[in-house]
Amino acid sequence: MSNRTFSIGGVHPADNKISRECKIETLPIPETVYIHLGQHIGAPAKPVVAVGDKVKVGQVLAEPGGFVSAYIHSSVSGTVKSIAPRADLAGNPQMCIEIAVEGDEWLEGIDTSDTVITDFPDEASVCLEKIKAAGIVGLGGATFPTHVKLSPPPGKKCDMLIINGCECEPYLTSDFRTLLEKGEQVAIGTAILKHILGVDKATIAIEDNKPEAIKHMKEVLANLRKVSTRFAGICVMSLMKKYPEGGEKQLIDAVMHRQVASGGLPIDVGAVIQNVATALAVYDAVQKNKPIVDNSVTVTGECFPRQANLLVRVGTPLRFIIDYLGGVPENAVKVISGGPMMGRAIANLDAATLKGTSALLFLTREQTVRGKESNCIRCGKCAEACPMGLEPFLLNRLSRAGGMLDALEANAVQDCIECGCCLYSCPANIPLLDVIRQSKVQVMGIMRARAAAATAAKK
Fold first, then answer.
1. Measured between alpha carbons, how far is 106 from 58 in angstroms, rounded to an integer?
2. DSSP secondary structure, 51-73, as one string
3. What is the pLDDT of residues 404-429, one digit of tens each?
4. Counting runs of H as helices and runs of E as strands, what totals does the chain give?
5. How far apart are alpha carbons 112 and 107 in whole angstroms?
6. Does domain 124-288 have CATH number 3.40.50.11540?
């Protein structure tokens, strides 16, 4: 077992990786898909198709709406039926392109074979342009456009690329299965990312509760090094199982022993983080000319009769996935998009999957009932558990007092990563995360307005 981990806070929830033995299975294509235009951090994409247009799999549907934005591609072939608002996972209207499926015709030039290609272009700019054109975004949860992350600002230099294979969130297993089933492609994608960044070292970080994945990736890299020197400098690192190991700042601490300052970014300490699924998507984009048209989704929960890891076309209605696996269990009262710690409850099962959809988790009433809230006993467990070194008990008190936004900012509420460690560790059942999250939104809004005003003043 590894003893290498991040240095501040963290908790140890039960793994519950009950779908870990389920190989990734390709889900049939639905009759209709609904592809959202805002599937990434930044500006929503702008449609370049019209109602009535015929499209193929991999065809561009929408182009970036700004510098921090990404291309959106069709995940199916068929006819564009509408471009209009449609309710998302939370029930909020979002612009969406509806496509009626007609066959499965792929755009010319996309390689759909299983042949693994190890060699890639010498020109880093060519690789980067392919990633941008393929609409690749971070698939670890944040969905930040990958081509932007791979273009550090002037004066910033990357020392190490870290591939996040921790999958520290309970229940989730799609990254684990990807490492086992597509490990060679992940390794090649890592080499491509390393080449673009111009760094000598890359680390594939995996928690020690996934020994099969650690062993497999070490063997994959050993074999690839025999083929090409481009795989030199890539290593696999085993980390202690601790949540939230997969958080960017926590992962940098664990792997590089460097701390990102408040308000800082990973590149400030010479790190770039990419998820396992993102590395696979980079391989597909550069080696196969394949954009993000599908992604792996874990469907799980003790009450769910059929565990699964599914390869799902982007824009697939959730009900189609659930019905394929037997329907919603009678004793399920909540469905989470993602894991139980950072996932969000789904208010609308008619919503469709996004590029970043990682899991559907079904929970029973017993699993969702919170204990009765009582008074804070000043035990300090929330502060001990916070991986960002914050004082959740203080942020909670300031939030509930009202009008304390300056004090909340001074105490770094904006640094909260919403991991839920404080809520998980509180013996008084105080809804710390819920309260702090609301205040964080307000403070971040003020900070953005202040930055915009400062920028405008300089002009």
1. 6
2. TT-EE-BT-EEEE-SSSS---EE
3. 999 999 999 999 999 999 999 999 99
4. 14, 17
5. 10
6. yes
